[in-house]
Amino acid sequence: MSSHRVAQVAAAGGRFEIVEREVPEPGPGHVRIAVEACGICHSDVFFVNALVPGVSFPVVPGHEIAGRIDRVGEGTYSGWKAGDRVGVGWFGGSCGHCPPCRQGDFVTCESLKVPGWAYDGGYAEMVIAPADALARIPDALSATDAGPLACAGVTVFNGLRRSSAKPGDLVAVLGIGGLGHLAVKYAAAMGFETVAIARGADKADFAEQLGAHHYIDSTADTPVAKALRSLGGAKVVLATASNSDAITATVEGLRPRGELVVIGADAEPLGISPVQLLMAGKIVRGHPSGTAKDVEDTMAFSALHGIRPMTEIVPLAQADAAYERMLSGAPRFRMVLTTR
Fold first, then answer.
1. What is the pLDDT of residues 79-136, one digit of tens each?
2. HEC string of 139-159?
3. DSSP secondary structure, 2-70, as one string
4. Burial class (CB in 10 A: 0-12, 13-18, 19+), 73
5. Do 37 and 337 form a contact (C-beta atoms < 8 A)?
6. Which pLDDT belongs to residue 1?
7. What φ, ψ does residue 318 adopt, rounded to 5°?
8. Which residues of 130-152 are buried (b: 16+ CB within 10 A; e: fewer)?
9. Angle 154-161/292-305 helices, nearest 10 degrees?
10. Is the dihedral angle over the CA atoms 317, 89, 183, 262 positive or is it negative?
């Protein structure tokens, strides 16, 4: 194959077009991946609309990549070989020398290499990625399931396992959409008494199907915080909904020394006062995604417990329509592009 197809945006805020490009060669420390599937994440908006610095156009987004190694660059770790099934997520490589990297905290690298930002992403038939970004995909997972787990999956999985909650603790998941539906499944599988919080009484049955032990309708007369306290108070609230008001409304539902872990992104500030945190020793923190090893752990846990993302699968040629559908909020729940 001397050329391959990519779905690119030529200018900020533009529409996707399918173009042919020359197949790139991997340099030292890199591999070329034959992409089989790539999830469409809402974070791709940052790059398509140039909402972050350093975006170069035309841009090829995509950081939920699943495929097989097609070629290994010279000088690359010998453990990788052509044919290996690999995924690449939001963590697309690190610099290795900034203070966070030197402390082993690679996902907070000051020069984090996010596919679709630092280099062409997975809306393509081929992609070049650094070897440190690669996560092995278990045989039990399809490419269309593995792709979303490399970003959405690892974000909520890591958010839960790195929280202060222990099996048996009450853990609430705010939002049961693209991130939250996976978070509820993981929380239940990790042994937490799991609460799903969403808008509308009609979502109660779905929350139960995901594994939730309790459901709180955030539009009901009883405030979310009071409903959480009636259950004993949450040790952890994992906030996947991108709504600062909804996130703020959970704080008084935390038990003493409870923890609010924020994953959903909203530009509006949280309405939390220091007084709400001080006396009960409550914690509020943000949570980034996860390294390649974290992605591997997420995939292994998912394979073991039969956890899969809910997806809508479309061919790469329909990338523009699929991206617009993602923006509409209509999918249940992750849009995934395929090349095969």
1. 999 999 999 999 999 999 999 999 999 999 999 999 999 999 999 999 999 999 999 9
2. CCCCHHHHHHHHHHHHHHHHH
3. -EEEEEEESSTT--EEEEEEEPPPP-TTEEEEEEEEEEE-TTHHHHHTT-STT--SSB-----EEEEEE
4. middle
5. yes
6. 60
7. -105, 30
8. bbbbbbbbeeebbbbbbbbbbbb
9. 90
10. negative
With residues binned 3-state (H G I as helix, E B as strand, rest as coil), the percentages for the chain, rounded to 5, are 30, 25, 45
Could you identify the residue written with the tokens 């009883």? 222
Tell me, yes or no, if the pTM score tops 0.90.
yes
Can you read off the two tokens belonging to residue 255? 């038990």
CA 150/CA 138 separation, integer angstroms: 12
C-alpha span between 228 and 111 (Å, rounded): 39
Beta pairing, strands 334-338 & 193-198: unpaired
216: left (phi over 0), alpha (psi -120 to 50) or beta: beta
What type of residue sits at position 2?
S
Paired tokens of 62: 């995509």
**pLDDT, tens only, 209-257:** 999 999 999 999 999 999 999 999 999 999 999 999 999 999 999 999 9
Q: Which long-range contacts (CB under 8 A, 24 or more apart) does 255-258 make?
A: 255/170, 255/280, 256/280, 256/281, 256/282, 257/164, 257/281, 257/282, 257/283, 258/233, 258/234, 258/282, 258/283
DSSP letters spanning 185-251: HHHHHTT-EEEEEESSGGGHHHHHHHT-SEEEETTSSS-HHHHHHHTT-EEEEEE-SS-HHHHHTTG
Q: Both tokens of residue 150?
A: 């490399």
Of the candidates 135, 139, 141, 116, which has an alpha carbon nearest to the alpha carbon of residue 127? 116
